[in-house]
Structure formats: structure tokens, C-alpha cells
Amino acid sequence: MKIKENWSLPNLKEAAKRTRSAVERVDHYYIPANTLDLGTGKTYYISTYGCQANQRDSETIAGILETIGFRPAQDLEHIDVIILNTCAIRQNAEEKVLGEIGRFKKLYRENKDLVIGVCGCMAQEDEFVKLILEKYPQVRLLFGTHNIQDLPVMLYDAMVKHEKVVKIYSKEGEVYENLPVKRFENHKAWVNIMYGCDKFCTYCIVPYTRGKQRSRMMDEILKEVQELKDAGYKEITLLGQNVNAYGKDLEEPIDFATLLEETAKIGIPRIRFMTSHPWDFTDEMVDIIARYDNIMPFIHLPVQSGDDEILKRMGRRYTRESYMKLYRKIMDTVPNAAVSTDIIVGFPNESDEAFEHTLELVKECQFDNAFTFIYSPRPGTPAAKMEDGIDEQTKHERLYRLNEEWNKYALEKNKAYIGKKVTVLVDGASKRNDHVYSGYTETNKLVNFTGENIKPGDFVDVMITDAKTFSLDGKAV
Ligand code: 5AD
Ligand code: SF4
Description:
binds 5'-deoxyadenosine; alpha/beta; 14 helices; single chain; CATH 2.40.50; five-stranded mixed beta barrel; Rossmann fold; pyruvate-formate lyase- activating enzyme
């Protein structure tokens, strides 16, 4: 593979370094004049994988593209730019991306001006970038999570100078304010409150792909929330890899409880936040959630495992007991609270006993929802070097048993809603039947319901008539 001088390639080791230096904050976004009409008459398509941080990044990418004249493509026949915003959290996320890049090869063969760009967390991995450069010539643009703001210049180089562009920094990162954004939804919005992660859980690639924890200034966040409220948004989700650690990295430290309270006071009808790490979850936070009606009583609280030895090797910094204490505090303090979680099975050398501990915890907590995964070794992380004698079949059986277990409780929890009235924020009508609508309760339950003359963004009272594991059915009342 020939490496060009003006390429910057990722380096996972470099990405793991953390310094004490202050985060650079860039408040003004400048688009070079020669790129301003680069996209006039041209179209784009973005394919987004992975978490909400990526979805929010794609909204920035779309915002930048539309600022320089591009419009969303109606079909893939006459398209000029395709961006794949990728996820590296597990191997299967990577496989899906490679499949999609493969499918776009034909489009590139027919149109050599087409720019296929790959960005996001996979682009931060050296091995992946090497693979793309060697085997996927149709990818003409590769950029990292720290390079989104450079998109106009990168596209200029790809489209006008016909260069292959590779621009991936592995660094702690900055905080950019005022980047353009095209929100994909009209009544719900993501609000970044921080970027990156410093927790370095031993299985996780995120601290390497997204840099050091960098909190936005509280007044910038509150300004954005106020603007969203003024624009008629009904719900915002405060986003960060670990929102509870918000503000700890600021020169004048501030905590998430304060941010949450100030956000609630703005009066937007629904506030959500994710993701919470049990380690930084303070009693003040629990109290604020309980005190404000517009902070939704729904908490995503990844536990990962119910076994202390595994938790220790995962680097999670809490024990099963301290998790349970926090869980009980939330359930006892926040009226009608719903809690969801993430669980990994098959962490290196997870014993039968350790797995049973996870099942026991699930039984005790009876989560409303759970996202369960088989451990996937991420090259460059400490867990990837741990010995693992557990075979694949055992891991799959554990996942199956775990899913059976949590599904049982989720269904029971949902059944308790039958005959009750809930308030649903409507997302839209069903594609198959326009008298059937869907939306979410305050506790983040998906509700499919019948009604008349209902619009996305409406709050509707719904009587629940039936319950499934993953959703509720009802009628507008
Ligand atoms: N393998 C499997 N699951 C993982 N997660 C993070 N890294 C890995 C990995 N290497 C899961 C965790 C996390 C969620 C977003 O993804 O449960 O909370
Ligand atoms: Fe990954 Fe742990 Fe950071 Fe979450 S808190 S992003 S699991 S390192």
C-alpha cells in the first residue's frame, strides 16, 4: 500500500494518550469561499451505524453538506456523495459496513466522479483503514471523528482535484460550537453535552475512537436547548458516553445534576439523557430526576455483568452491591421509574458461576429493557489480550438464556400497563395503516395505538389494551 504524504492515518496507541492540557474550544465555523457552492445541483446520502453520538454526527455532516449546496438524494442512480458513518463497538457492526461498501462498488464503476466517504469510529482504527486502502478502491474519502468540520475542504480535494483524501487524527480532540446541523426529526432532538470518554472499560474501543472526555460549556448547552424549545421541539436527549461525568473536566467544574436542573427549568416538555455510568451517578441526580416532571423517569444504566470479578476485569469501578444500591435508590425515589441496561456475556473466561450471577441480578432488577451482547474482542483494548477459554456455543447459549430471562420480566412490566392511561409523544403513523400511530411513553415504552387526526409531535393520552415484550398496544382517549 502506498501511503501519500498528505494523508493522516489513525493510530490507536496515540489515541489512548491523555494529557492534562486544556481542551481547545472553537466557537466560529468558517467555510472556505471556494467550497461554498461545491454541492450546487448535487446530491448526497448518509448511512449511519451505531449509537446516538453517530446519529447526531450525521446531522452535523448533513448540515455541512447542505450549507455548501448539496441536497438529499431521492435515489442512488444520480448521486454525487455517499457517506458511511460507521460504528466499531463490535465486530458485526464492522461486517455490515464492509457489506455496504461492497454494494456501492457498482455505483462507483458506473460513475467515477462519485465520492464514497467512510467516517466514524471504524475510520479511527488503523487496521480497518489499511484494509479499506488496500481492498476497497471505491472509497475515495476517509475521515475520522475529529475531522468532520473539515468536510468542505476534503470534498473539494476529492471532487475538484480528484484526490483520494485520508484525514484521520488520533488525538484528544476539541469542542466545536456552531457547526451547521440538519436535524433529522422535527419534534425530538439530540443535544451533545460532552464528547469522548476517559473511563477505558477494558472491552471498549470508544475512548480510543472518540478521544478524551470534553464537556461543552453549560451556557452553550442551555442556549441550544432554549433554541430547540423556541423552535417547537417537544423532547431533547442530552447525549454523552457517560453523562454523569459531565463537567468534571471543565476549568470550573460543574456537575450533571446542575446541568439537568438548569435544562429542566427551560421548560421543554420532555428531557432524556444517555448514557449513565453507575460510577458517577450521584444522589443529587436522582433527586433532581424525581423533582422535575419534565425529566423523564427513564434511566439507561448499563450494568454489563452481575459478577464482581468480571466487573473488576472490565474496569467498571463498581460492584454488584453498589449497582443494586443505586438501582434501589432510583426505584425508591423516582416515581414510576423504568430502568434499562446493557449486558455483555462471554467476557474472557466468564465462568458458569459468573454468568449465573448476571442472571440473578437480572432477576433482582427486572429491567424494563436490556441490550445484550456477546463480548466482541476489539483489537487494541486490554480485554482483547485476556485469555479466553470459553467456546462460542456456550456464549450463544448464555445470550439465549439471558434474553429469555429479561424478556420475561419486561413482558410482566409491560402487562402492568394494561388498563392504564399513558401520555405518548407521537412519532408518526404506521406505514401500513394510517389510523395506527406510534410513539413513546414517559418511561420510554413504544406504544402502537389507534386514533384519528393525530400528528407527529402531538402528546396523546392512550389507554393501554395489550402488552408485548417490546411494545404496548392501545387506543387514543
Ligand atoms: N463487545 C460486546 N459489547 C460491547 N459493548 C461495548 N464494547 C463491547 C464489546 N467489545 C456494549 C456495552 C456497551 C454497549 C454500548 O455496547 O454493553 O454498554
Ligand atoms: Fe466504553 Fe466504558 Fe466509556 Fe461506556 S464508559 S464508552 S463502555 S469505556
